[in-house]
Design goal:
The structure holds 2 protein chains of 2 kinds. Chain A is an alpha/beta fold. Chain A has 2 domains: 3-39 and 179-380, no CATH class; 47-165, 3-Layer(aba) Sandwich (abc type-2 transporter like fold), CATH 3.40.1710. Chain A has helices spanning 3-16, 18-34, 58-69, 82-90, 104-109, 125-153, 158-165, 183-211, 222-251, 260-282, 290-305, 317-323, 328-340, 345-380, and strands spanning 47-53, 73-79, 96-100, 114-121, 169-175. Chain A has a 4-stranded mixed sheet, with helices on both faces. In chain A, helix 3 links the parallel strand 1 (47-53) and strand 2. Chain A starts with a helix and ends with a helix. Chain B is of the alpha/beta class. Helices cover 63% and strands 10% of the residues of chain B. Chain B has a 4-stranded mixed sheet with strand order 2-1-3-4, sandwiched between helices. A two-stranded antiparallel ribbon of chain B has the order 6-7. In chain B, strand 6 (209-211) and strand 7 form a beta hairpin. In chain B, helix 4 (56-67) crosses helix 7 and helix 7 (122-150) packs antiparallel against helix 8 (155-162). The longest helix of chain B is centred in the middle third of the chain and has 30 residues, at 221-250. The chains are: A alpha/beta, B alpha/beta. Chains A and B meet through helix 1, helix 2, strand 4, helix 6 and helix 7 of A and helix 3, helix 5, strand 4, helix 7 and helix 8 of B. Strand 4 of chain A pairs parallel with strand 5 of chain B.
Chain lengths: 381, 390
């Protein structure tokens, strides 16, 4: 059996296996739609807030209107007491409250100062941050207006008064993900993880199904088999990667900085390392349902340890060190730096070399494992 | 009935993987995921500070930044180096204090302080953005105070005229914005749902009878399924109970309601989950394919819970899909009990949202009848050879 015949045999074995086809082609397509689905609206807007207005003055109504004008907030109702606001929140009808104290306007006009209280439901952090940001900016706005009126009343020149109110411009701009959207945040890391997990599952099911029976895999040298299997999976995953990193990134409006060559060059050791890890681990399975189950359970920990959801500096050191042997972990971070942050090739070079190192180790392990499998199966048969 | 239970015990005992799924895998998973987030509060996040002014005021502002627990300022000599560090994710934010900041402030021109924060890491970026502005605003108020005092303003009125309205923001139900309290419970519930699904799928898969090219089910499948439900429900509830005890007793996260209510809600979630799994199992009737399909279905459950991204802002299709996931129904009760401290009546109302799953019962019955129609033995059952043997 020469190399080309082996490649053809591998292709046939993959395509004839319904479970593999369903996981690889079905899974990759299905996940590309399903995972980003909840996040398609990108930014939480119009969070429901109730107002407890103890003042009922022109100024308190102005603050309420300004809060409602914020895109992040929708004023639902004006309730009588904080207790009533609490029932609204407990019933899930509102997620935040704004309390305007009694004598709000009077105190401000007398120059005594007043305090606006905001509350947001921090069981949901995005809701909380939207409510807090919206209400605080409305409060600051009202504060500046009061300041300005005060200055003008004291006979200050309007231009100077404006300047005194805003003595410094703070120009705060988000970088790399200018819209603060949720899909550009989740998709780049998550899609690499999906590629990683489906590749592991595909090689796992293929291996677990084959080792039990004698077949073409016994008739070739282990090195040749690993090379042929990697080549076939590389061909399939070149397609999937182009779909995910090309079309899906464009579709989900992920910001892309790196060139095609750089992305391809970085994906190569990632896919090779993952593929050889999958082949090695497949030698440990003897039932076809096991790989899917095991890889399903580890996917959430891998996602969170990769460091784009929760900063790596806060993850316990032993976990970070242990996770470095999983190809997805250096790949997700490296790819984000290369493709989303624009760090340049020299910056991701260590991670790239790490992936090549992982590939060398896993490929050797896979070859040894397959050699052992071939011997044990030929002994039993 | 008793012999069916004994049979189930024996099956569990003889399957190492199944035994692992109900014993140490959940424990390892729960502890590992908690450990990952155990820092709880994001602190000391590196931020690049480029001080082009090097004046008393700019140094004061830098000190203000380092006084904030979230921010750990790192000094950079020029913008280029700072931008490079930001691109390599070594710092999560960048503050540029401009040249002649002090002079501009003294001569009442409006200098601009530039802040850039890494929004690719949304969680860190949003937090830094608000904290950086807060710290700088605090420092700038002090400058304003001095200038007002110099103009001869009364000390008592200075504070009020600088910030006539002060803000008091409260994070309800999670006072210090602890990520363990916010993120870990839904993650663990998602993990628990996956585990329960796998345990049940593996258990029912063992009942398949190969016949020809397809698999069928025995006549007495229903008692067996009942026994499985009665057998595995308490086991999985022990694990979810462990999660609750671990989070709300050992780690002492705040909880206002009763944990028993949550256990009740979890029992209903299990029933709904297993109903769904049974329907898929009856349709597929192939162990590897059932596992693959259930995996595909339940793997993204966490995204649909609506904890990280609010439900109200999901597209309508996602809202519908969400209703298919038992975990999304449960998590509503979880938040209500833990945060709002609701009682039994409200939890029961929330549980009634599972009504759609009842529609699966007649479907299940029909599918079960189909699956029990084993073709007569006479048919030649040749295993299809998929291997390419040469």
């Amino acid at each position: 059996m020469n190399f080309w015949q082996l490649i053809v045999a591998e292709c046939k074995a993959i395509l004839a296996d319904k479970a593999i086809v369903m996981t690889l082609f079905g899974g990759v397509l299905f996940y590309s739609v399903l995972y980003p689905l909840p996040y398609l609206n990108q930014v939480p807007t119009e969070q429901q807030v109730v107002v407890v207005d103890h003042d009922n003055s022109s100024l308190s109504r102005l603050v309420t209107r300004h809060a409602d004008a914020s895109a992040k907030i929708k004023i639902l109702a004006n309730v009588n007491s904080i207790d009533q606001a609490q029932t609204w929140i407990d019933q899930g009808k509102a997620h935040g409250l704004l309390v305007i104290p009694a004598n709000f306007r009077r105190d401000l006009l007398l120059g005594k100062g007043a305090t606006l209280s905001y509350g947001g439901d921090a069981s949901y952090f995005l809701i909380y941050s939207a409510v807090a940001e919206g209400l605080v900016s409305a409060g600051i706005d009202a504060s500046k207006q009061v300041q300005l009126i005060g200055l003008l009343a004291r006979g200050q020149n309007p231009q100077l008064a404006l300047q005194a109110v805003n003595s410094v411009n703070i120009n705060s701009v988000p970088a790399f993900n200018p819209s603060l959207g949720y899909t550009p945040y989740v998709v780049p890391g998550l899609f690499l993880l999906i590629l990683h997990q489906t590749l592991l599952i595909g090689t796992g099911i293929l291996g677990a199904g084959q080792w039990r029976k004698s077949g073409y895999w016994q008739q070739v040298r282990p090195v040749t088999l690993v090379l042929a299997r990697l080549s076939v999976f590389m061909m399939i995953y070149a397609l999937f990667s182009s779909f995910y990193l090309g079309f899906c990134f464009y579709w989900y409006k992920v910001s892309v900085v790196a060139t095609v060559v750089e992305v391809g060059l970085f994906m190569l050791p990632f896919l090779l390392a993952t593929g050889s890890l999958g082949i090695y681990l497949s030698s440990l399975f003897n039932r076809r349902e096991l790989p899917t189950q095991l890889y399903l359970l580890v996917s959430m920990p891998i996602l969170f340890v990769s460091g784009f959801v929760w900063p790596i500096a806060l993850i316990p050191e032993p976990l970070v060190l242990a996770s470095q042997v999983i190809p997805a972990v250096p790949a997700i971070m490296g790819m984000l730096e290369l493709n989303q942050l624009g760090a340049g090739w020299s910056a991701v070079m260590p991670k790239w070399l790490q992936l090549w190192g992982l590939f060398a180790v896993f490929a050797t392990m896979a070859i040894v494992a397959i050699a052992r499998k071939q011997k044990s199966v030929s002994v039993t048969s | 009935m008793r012999h069916l239970f004994r049979r189930e015990c024996k099956a569990l005992w003889h399957s190492p993987w199944q035994l692992a799924l109900v014993s140490y895998i959940p424990l390892i998973g729960v502890i590992a995921l908690w450990w990952l987030f155990s820092a709880g509060l994001p602190r000391q996040l590196p931020v690049a500070v480029v001080d082009l002014d090097n004046s008393q005021i700019s140094r004061m502002l830098t000190r203000q930044l380092s006084a904030n627990a979230v921010i750990a300022p790192r000094s950079f000599a020029n913008e280029a180096a700072a931008i490079e560090a930001m691109r390599q994710a070594q710092v999560y934010g960048l503050v540029i204090l401009p040249y002649q900041l002090r002079k501009d402030l003294l001569t009442s021109k409006q200098p601009t302080i530039d802040i850039r924060y890494n929004s690719q890491f949304l969680l860190v970026g949003k937090l830094l953005s608000s904290q950086l502005q807060l710290s700088l605003a605090e420092g700038l108020t002090q400058i304003g105070e001095v200038s007002l005092l110099l103009k001869g303003a009364n000390k008592a009125t200075v504070d009020v005229s600088l910030t006539p309205i002060s803000n008091q923001t409260t994070a309800l139900f999670n006072r210090n914005n602890n990520y363990v309290g916010f993120l870990v419970p839904p993650i663990l519930i998602a993990l628990w749902q996956l585990l329960s699904m796998l345990v049940f799928v593996n258990s029912v898969n063992a009942e398949l009878i190969p016949q020809g090219e397809r698999y069928y089910l025995a006549r007495n499948i229903w008692p067996k399924v009942w026994v499985k439900v009665l057998f595995y429900s308490p086991i999985m509830l022990v694990h979810s109970g462990f999660i609750l005890v671990w989070l709300y007793h050992y780690l002492a996260l705040p909880v206002s309601g009763s944990l028993w209510l949550l256990l009740l809600a979890q029992a209903f979630m299990l029933m709904a989950l297993w109903l769904l799994v049974l329907v898929i199992f009856m349709i597929m009737r192939d162990s590897a394919r059932t596992v693959s399909f259930c995996t595909a279905l339940f793997a993204p459950a966490f995204a649909f819970m609506g904890i990280t991204f609010p439900v109200n802002d999901m597209p309508i299709l996602a809202k519908w899909w969400r209703l298919v996931m038992p975990s999304s129904h449960y998590i509503d009760s979880h938040v209500s009990v833990v945060s709002y401290g609701v009682g039994l009546p409200q939890v029961l109302t929330q549980i009634s949202s599972y009504w759609g799953f009842l529609l699966l019962l007649p479907l299940l019955y029909v599918l079960g009848r189909q699956a029990q129609k084993i073709p007569p033995q006479g048919q030649v059952s040749l295993p299809v050879n998929l291997e390419v043997n040469r």
